[in-house]
C-alpha cells in the first residue's frame, strides 16, 4: 500500500494547479484560469457554483451558507493565483511574476523547507485577514496553499454536505489504516445531532441504525447517542450532548477533529505558525533559569509581552526575589509558620509563643514607604501554634495548636469555634478547592473532613500513618498525606514534650508536637487518596522522615521535604520522583518548602543552617542561598500568590523576612544596616528565650496592636 507521502502531490513553482480561484473569504474554490495568471485579490470566485462579488474590505457581499458554516479566514487556507480584479470590478493593470529560486531550503545553510515555510506564512496571512497579500505571495512563490480536494472537503463540512464529505475523505487518500472509520463516525455523529436538533427524529434514527451502528461503535457510546432521542427540546439536547448546535462552532470543531486523519502536508493544521512560535517561547521559558514574568497579550507592562525580535531572557536582579525589604518582629519566640492570604495583602504568622499574628501589608510600591501593621494577635492557644490555613475568601483563618483546631474571623479577630475531634497533635490543615470545607490531619492517624462552619462531615477513619502533613490537589480529586507508618517505635516522646535539641522547632509536626527522634528506623510513607471515595490510590514508602507536602497548581506534582537534607518532587500520575533538590540542611526540625514564581518555576525552602534556598524547578539548579536570618532554623516559607516577585520566610530568630526582586537603580532598596535599624513590629531587641511550648507566660484572648 502506498504511504501517506506517496499519496501527497507536490505543488511547487513548476506544478502549480491552474484550476483554483480565491474568494474573499480566503478559501480556494474551483475555477478555470490561465497558467500565466496575474496575482492579486480575487473579485469573483465560484462558491460551489454561486458567484460572489468582493467588495473593497475583502468580504463577500453574498451571505450564502449557514451561520456555523459561513466561510471566514479563521482557518487560513489559500489558492493559486488567477486573473485579478480591482475593487471596482476592472482587471488589475499589473501582474506578479513568479519567482523561481534555486534549492529547496529557506536559506543555503538552513534546514527549513522553503515550500513549507511559505505555505505557513500564507496560512497566517489569511488567518489575520490579509487575503490579498496571501494571494500575491501565492502568485509570486508558486506555492498553493492547498489542493482543490482539500478545499472542497472543508466546504462540505462547513455546509453540512455529509455524503460528499465522506467521499472527499477517500479522494484525499484516507484509508482504514489512517482511521477512515473513525472519521466517518465523527461525520455521522454530527449529522445525527443536527437532525435531532431539527426535530427530524425519523431521519436521525436511520442515521443511528444504518450509518453509526455498522461502524462497530462501542455499546456504551451507542447507547449514549440513542438516549439523546429522549431530549425534550433542542436546548436539552445541546446541554446533554455537550454540543453547541448547528449554528454554533460544532462544524468547525468537527473539521479540526477530522484534520488528524488527513496528511498535514495536504491540510495544514490550524494556526500552525502560531503554534510553532508558542512552542519556541515555551522552550525558551523552560531554559530561562530566572523566568518570572507573566506573559500577557493585554498587560500594559512591556515585560509581559513576548517579542519575536529577541530571545526570551529574565534578569536575575529584576525578577528573582533575593533582597530583604522588611523584617517583621512581632513574636517573642520562634516562628514556625507563615502563610499569605489569597488576596496577597495579609500575612499570618505563628510559632512557639502560642500566638498567631495577622499582618496587613501596605499597597505602596516604594519599599521604603510601605507599611506593615498587625491587625490582630490571636492569643487563645494553650500551646505552640504549628499550622495556618486561610479560607478561599480570606474570611477565616485556621490555626492548629496541640490537638485543637481554631477558626478565627479575620475581620474581627474573634475565635469562632474550637474543634476537638483529634486526640493528638494536629499537624496539617487544608481547605477544599471550592471553599466548602477543610481537612485536618494529625499524629493520631486521623484525617477529618469539616464543613465551612466547623461541623464534622466525614472521616478517613484511622489511617496507617501518623500524619505530618497533607494537601488537597487543586483539581479537587485527591488528598496527598505524608507521615510515619504506625510502628509505635520506642523512645518517642509524647506530643506535649519539648525537644532537647538545640532548637525547639518541632522535628515531626507543629502545634507543640516535638517528639525526640525514634531510636529505631520507622517506615515513612506518602499516601494518595481519592477525595470522593476516600480509597487509597497509592501508598509509597519513603526513605527519610517527611515534614511537608505541597501540590503544584496543575495538580501534577507533590513537593515533599524529606530528611536528611533533600526535597523531592513527585509526579503524582506515575508515582515516581521527577526531581531532587539538595543543598539545604534538614535533619531534626520541621522545614516547610513551597512552589513559587510564575508557573511555579521556583522551589524555595528554609534550612537548619539559617538560610533560604531557591532552586529552578525544571532543572534542579540551585539559584540562590539567601542569608539574613539569625541563628537557628528558617522553618517555613510562603510565596505571595498575587506578587510573583515576593515571598516571606520565618525563623527561630523570632522574625519574619519579606524578600523581593528589585531593580536597585529604580527603586529605593534599603541596605542591610538600615533594615536592622528599622525592624517592624513588636519585640525588637528581646533576648532569645527557649520557651517550653507548654509554658504559662502566654496571654489568652485576641487583640489588635
From TrEMBL:
Gene3D superfamilies assigned: YVTN repeat-like/Quinoprotein amine dehydrogenase (2.130.10.10)
An example GO BP is: proteasome-mediated ubiquitin-dependent protein catabolic process
State the taxonomy lineage. Eukaryota, Fungi, Dikarya, Basidiomycota, Agaricomycotina
PANTHER family to which the protein is assigned, alphabetical = WD REPEAT PROTEIN 26-RELATED, WD REPEAT-CONTAINING PROTEIN 26
User: Which Pfam family, giving just one, matches this sequence?
Assistant: LisH_WDR26
CDD domains (alphabetical): WD40 (cd00200)
Q: Where is the composition biased (Low complexity)?
A: 493-507
Query: Locations of Basic and acidic residues compositional bias?
Result: 686-697
InterPro entries tied to this protein: CTLH_C (IPR006595), LisH (IPR006594), WD40/YVTN_repeat-like_dom_sf (IPR015943), WD40_repeat_CS (IPR019775), WD40_repeat_dom_sf (IPR036322), WD40_rpt (IPR001680), WD_repeat-ST_regulator (IPR051350)
Q: Which GO terms describe its cellular component?
A: GID complex
Report the residue ranges that make up the CTLH domain in this protein: 146-203
**Residue ranges of the region described as Disordered:** 1-23, 493-522, 669-705
WD repeat spans? 328-369, 419-453, 599-625, 634-660
Under what name is this protein listed?
A: WD40 repeat-like protein
Keywords assigned by UniProt, alphabetized = Repeat, WD repeat
